[in-house]
Amino acid sequence: MQRFQEEMLQTRLSKEQIEQLIRPAVLADLSLDEYIRVWRRIDPYWVSHVTRQGIRDHFGMANHSAGVLEYQDGLGGMLRNGCELRAPRMVHDGLDPTCERSIERFLQKYDIFKEPTLEKAQKLLRQLIHRSYSAPPYADKGAVHFAAQTVLDDLYGGESGNEVFVIYPSSLIASQYYYAFNGAHKDFTKPQDDRSWNDVFVWDKDNAQTAIPLNAGILFLPNSTRVDPVTGSRYALEKQEWDGKTFYTLARYPEFDERFAAWCDAIPTDSEFAKAILEQAAVREEMRQTLDPIKMRALFKKRDELLETLKQGIKKTLENLQTPEEIFDQMHEKLLKLAENIHMSTKLVQRVQSGQEQFSFSEETRKSRLYYLRPATNSIPAKQYWKQRFAAEPEFQLKHIVYYDGNPTEAVERFLMDHGISATGSSYNTRHHRRDSRSDEERLIGWSKNLVTDLRGDPRANQGLPRLEEIAHQLLKNHYIQNRGSENGVAGHG
Description:
- 45% of the residues lie in helices and 13% in strands.
- By secondary structure, it is an alpha+beta fold.
- The protein folds into two domains: 2-87 and 142-232 and 380-463, no CATH class; 254-369, no CATH class.
- Helix 8 runs antiparallel to helix 21 (465-487) and helix 14 (293-320) packs antiparallel against helix 15 (325-342).
- It is globular and about 75 Å long.
- The chain starts with a helix and ends in a 7-residue tail after the last helix.
């Protein structure tokens, strides 16, 4: 009997069983051990969603750079709002497309009522709902977004080495939700070739609002990263109170900031830093003009020597500025990156050489490229921070938590391999799909019926849109009719 039970636990679930059993509510009710045993019986593929936790110290795309160098409590926000992943439309706009009051607040937020005419107001509304360069806004903001077979911490994450993310079996997403792929390849079994296009849109089948329980997935939290015991950030932060709310901002070294700003405003031309840049520019000009291979080799050697001179110049500059030891290496690295590009600005170099100008770094450059991040003091391991936080807020305790070290994607692959879910860690090469040429149905792990290919026209990606437009247009008509009446002295009196 025991052997029979063990064999049953290894038997793959049928498509019908997956549709009936691999549901959010079922998975959320399992222990982590039970969750792992169930996952062994379905496809090993997975999707991930990384949240912004702590100081956002990096970004991968300019159009997804919001919140850089700001403290964010992404996981805390999810725990306080139903313990679920919610679509951006819910999180950022608070928009319920079936609620008149919610729609009215949306119209107010985007100043649609301030348009001079009804026609212009309706045009702005259409732009907000329909206009896009890649995906229609309504379908895009109404979806929860995932990456397939990778964690996109480099593009969307928070703190390097301190990322928080959740994964779900792709079988759950593909069988229980409607979904679409923003990239060229529609494939759950491997990542997109271009990471920036690895974007899986997911919509609820029954509701206009999409929210996926965190407990239906597995939450990955950093393990040994040293963090502040209060904020969980790798960096030193200062607590501020404003309008009854608590905010955290990056801790500064005010005296160093003043010295560094003064130096950036006018870098002495006779300093080792400036002289090294000018010498680099001279070598670059010689290399541009010569065709002699012997001379070119000598110039390459001289360029390498000047790089070392520049490094020493930066080191001496930072020492003279009494740069705090905790941020010395950060500032050295950032100044070196900037300096290596300055010598290629021919016109600037010529003005400095003629005495018309000095090298300098603007305030904008200092904020965007010469910022520093002070490490947290009295730090503790991240695992200890999260355990203490969950103990203090037991109502937010999650059921499936894995503490990890190292690269997030590699951590997931190790977890899958160590627990017998994936044979090799990299699910693409598992026993389930060894062939390189697979059908669309295989790439969609048997759930092509839930695939949305027309984000603009498919009603499955636009639930609630007709009702939203109906209510919004009626609110706009009422507003402009009332205003017109007020102008004519007909309305506006109680």
